[in-house]
Amino acid sequence: MSIPTLSMAVATYGCTAAVKSGEIPVDGVTINQIEVSPIIAAFRRMVRDLAFDICELAPTTYVIAKAAGVPITALPIFLSRRFHHSGFQVREDAGIATPKDLEGKKVGVRAYSVTTGVWTRGVLMNEYGVDNDKIQWIVDDEEHVTSLKLPANVTHAPDGKSLAAMMASGEIQAGFASRAGIGRSGAPTAGWEAANKDTPVYRELFDNALELEAAWYRRTGIYPVHGCIVVRNDVLGRYPFLAASLFDAFEQAKQQWLEKLQGGATDVPDYDKYADIMPFVGDDPLSNGLEANRATIEALVTYAFQQKLIPRRVPIEELFVDVRKARAA
C-alpha cells in the first residue's frame, strides 16, 4: 500500500523544527509542509475551508469551531504557551488603578475570540471579580469562525481606524499589547504581524506580572496554551494510526529541543519565552498529553463559556483524541 501524503500547516518553533525539517518523520505518512506566514492566516483557512489535513490552531478558535460543528479534532500537542497577567496595557489618564476599574471603559482587542483575550478576561473575571459585561470591547478584525455571534458589549472599530490610533487618541482606555491589539499597525488581514514602531509606551495593568503568574499557577495548575494541532475528522477516520504518529513525532522533536534548553544554552529557539517561567512550571514548559493539561483545558472551556463564545461547556473527551486509546485500538 502506498504511503499517503498529507498537507500540514504548522509554524516553526523550537519544539516543531525537527518535524518541519523532516529530520523526525511522522510514521506512516509523508508530510507536505505548507508554509503560511503569519500562521494566524492558516487558522482562518482551516476553520472556514478545511484547507489542510493537519494544522496548527489557536485553542480558543478550535473550541469555538468544534462547538459550531466544524469536522476537526485536536491532539493534545501544545506548541506555544504563556501567562496573561502581562501584556494588558492602560492609559495613565484613564483612571484604571485596579482590574475592577476596567468596568465602564472601552478596551481594544484584535478580535473577541483571540486566545490572549480569552485567557486574560478569564483571569480578570475569576480572580479579580471584573464584570465583563460592563466593559465595552472594541475589535478591528473578523472572528475566524464566521458563525460566532458576538455579545452585545462587543463593537467594531470605525472603518479606517486602528486600535493603536484609538488608544493614542484616548477613544479606548486600555488594550492588549502586540498583535493582539494596540501593538499592531495596518489592517489585521494584511498585517497581523506588522509592528507599530510608533506605539507609545503604556502602563501595564499589573506591574508585578511574573510574581502573580507564578502564584496563580501554583494555586490553580492552569498554564495557558496557545497553539494545538488539529486534524480533519475524515483524515483521522481514514488513518487511525495518525494520531499516535503525530503525537510521537512532535513529542520527539520537543524532547530534542528541550535537551538544549535544559542544557542552559541561551541561543536555543524560544529561550526568552520560557526561561523566566521554567523555575515554577518545571523543566518541560510544553508538556503534552491530556492528563498533564486537564486543569488548563477545563479552564479554557469554562472561560470561553463564561464569555459567551460557546453555547455549552464542551467535554474534554469531545475535544481531544485520547492518544493512549488510539494507540491501543
Layout of helices and strands:
Blueprint: E1 5-9, H1 17-20, E2 30-33, H2 40-49, E3 54-57, H3 59-67, E4 72-81, E5 88-90, E6 106-108, H4 115-128, E7 136-139, E8 154-156, H5 163-169, E9 174-176, H6 188-191, E10 203-204, H7 209-220, E11 225-232, H8 233-238, H9 242-262, H10 271-274, H11 278-281, H12 294-306, H13 316-319, H14 323-328
Parallel strand pairs: 1-2, 1-3, 6-7, 6-9, 7-8
Antiparallel strand pairs: 3-11, 4-11, 5-9, 5-10
Helix pairs in contact: 4-12
In short:
The protein has 329 residues and is an alpha/beta fold. Helix content is 36%, strand content 15%. Helix 4 crosses helix 12.
What does it look like?
- The protein has 14 helices and 11 strands.
- The chain is of the alpha/beta class and 329 residues long.
- The chain has 2 domains: 5-82 and 223-328, Periplasmic binding protein-like II (D-Maltodextrin-Binding Protein, domain 2, 3-Layer(aba) Sandwich), CATH 3.40.190.10; 88-205, D-Maltodextrin-Binding Protein, domain 2, CATH 3.40.190.
- Helix 1 (17-20) links the parallel strand 1 and strand 2 (30-33).
- The radius of gyration is 20 Å and the shape is globular.
- The two termini are 20 Å apart.
- The relative contact order is 0.19.
- The model has no long low-confidence stretch (mean pLDDT 93).
